[in-house]
Amino acid sequence: MKELKSFDKPVLITKPLLPDLNEVRLLLENVWSSNQLTNNGSMAQLLEQEVSRYLNASHLSLFSNGTIALQVACKVLRLSGEVITTPFTFAATPHSLAWCGIKPVFCDIDDDTLTIDASKIENHITDRTTGILPVHVYGTPCNVQEIQRIAEKYHLQVLYDAAHAFGVEVGGKPIGSFGDASMFSLHATKIYHTIEGGALTFANKHMKERADRLRNFGLLSEESVMEPGTNGKLNEVQAAVGLLVLKMVDSEIENRRLRVERYVNNLKETDGIRFIGKVEGVRQNYPYFVIRISSQRFGRSRNEVYEELKKFNVFARRYFYPLCSNFKCYKDLPSAQPENLPVATAAAEEVLSLPLHGRMDMADIDHICDILTSLKK
Ligand code: T4K
Question: Whose CA is nearest to atom 42 of ligand 1?
Fold first, then answer.
C-alpha cells in the first residue's frame, strides 16, 4: 500500500473568491473621490440592481450581514410567538428568532436532503405559531410546494433561510421566489460574497420598502421615524468588492461542480460513505461537499475521521454539529428533546464537510479521498 503523505500546508474547508486587487483599487478610487463611504451610496445601489438581476428577484434589499437580514425579515413579516424551524442549521437561524423575541420550535428533518421534514411541520402548529423558517441547507431546496400548502392552510408566513442557496433554481424558478421572503448570506465563506453581507428577497415591494427603512434605523426622513429599526447597511467598500465577485460566481459554480463530481467518483464505491440526496430539476450551486459516515459500515465514527484527517493537515468541518436544539439556550425547549428529533440527531453525528472551492487542485481532491478511504476499517 502506498504511503499517504500529509499536505504541506493546511487544507481548509474553503477559500473565499478574491477579485483582482487592481480592479478593486479602481472601484475604490471612485468611492474615495465621492467621499460617500456608506448609507446607501452609489456602489450599494448598483450592487442591489446587479444582485437582483443575477437572482432574478423583483424586490431585493442588501444588508451588512445575513444574520441582521434574517432579523429584519422577522420584523417585516411580523413574526411573533412561535416559529417552526430546523435544528440542523447554523446558530444564526434560531438566534435570529430569539433576538426578535420569538420562540424557535424545532421540527425534525428529512433523512435524504437534511432539510425540514415538511410532513412533520403540522404537528408543531399551535395557536401561537406565526410562521415557518425552513433552511435550504447546503443549497438543497426544501419541499417548497408542501411548505406553501401548509402555510396557506394555517395562514402562516414563510421565511426561507437561503444562506447557502445563492443562484439555486427549482424547475427554472429562482429559489428566492418561494415563500414570503428569503435570506441569502453574502459572507466570505459563501459562493458569492461581499466580505460580510446579506440579501433579502421579498414577495412584494411593500415588504422591501419596510426592510429598507428598518436597515436604516426605521428612518423615513430626517424628521420622521416610523418604527424601531436597526443598522443593517452594506457599506461602499463591501459593495465594490461585491460588484467584482459577482462576475466570478458562474465560473466558480462550474468549477465546484467539476470538483464535486471528482469527489463523488472517488468515493461512491466506499461502503459506509453516502452523499446528501439531490432534488430533481434543481440548478445546484455546490456551496459544500458533504458526506455522511456510518460508523457501523465504515468502521470509524465521523468524529474519528474528522480527527484523523487533521493529522494529514486536512481541516474538514462538522456542519452542522452540534444541533442548534442542543445549545444551552434551547435544550430545555420541549421541541428540542432528541427523542423528537431522531433524524437530525443521527445526521449531526454523521455529516462531514470536506474542503471545497473552485480553485482546488484535482490532485488534492484525489489525495483527500485516498486518505479518507485508507481510514476505513
Ligand atoms: N443561516 C445559515 C444556514 C448559515 O449557514 C449562516 C452562516 C447564516 C444564516 C448567517 O449568515 P451571516 O450572518 O454569516 O452572513 C462560517 C461563516 O462565518 C458563516 O457565515 C456560515 N453560515 C457558517 C456555516 O460558516 P464558521 O464559524 O465556520 O467560520 P470560520 O471562521 O471557521 O471559517 C470557515 C473556514 O473558512 C475557515 O477554515 C477558513 C476559511 N475562511 C474563513 C474566512 C472568514 C477563509 O479562508 N477566509 C475568511 O475570510 O462560520
Answer: 189
Considering only the C-alpha atoms of the chain, give the largest distance between any 2 of them, rounded to a whole number of Å: 75
Question: Ligand 1 center to residue 148 CA distance, Å?
Answer: 29
Backbone angles phi, psi at 60, to 5 degrees: -130, 140
Give the number of the atom of ligand 1 that is nearest the alpha carbon of residue 67: 13
Q: Is 201 helix (H, G, I), strand (E, B) or coil?
A: strand
As a whole number of angstroms, the distance between CA 340 and CA 338 comes to 5
Q: What pTM value is reported for the model?
A: 0.97
State the cell numbers at 247.
462576475
The angle, 0 to 180 degrees and rounded to 10, between the axes of the packed helices 362-374 and 249-267 is 30
pLDDT single digits (tens) 156-185: 999 999 999 999 999 999 999 999 999 999
For residues 54 and 325, what is the distance between their CA atoms, to the nearest angstrom? 34
Cis peptide before 320 (omega within 30 of 0): yes
Segment (H or E) for 103: strand 103-106
What pLDDT digit, counting tens, does each position of 192-236 carry? 999 999 999 999 999 999 999 999 999 999 999 989 999 999 999
> Which residues fall within 8 angstroms of residue 228, CB to CB, at 6 or more apart?
218
DSSP 311: H
Q: Ligand 1 mean position to 186 CA, how many Å?
A: 10
Using the mean position of ligand 1's atoms as its centre, give its distance from the Cα of residue 189 in Å. Answer: 5
Helix (H, G, I), strand (E, B) or coil at 109: strand
DSSP state of 294: -
How far apart CA 261 and CA 286 sit, in angstroms, is 10
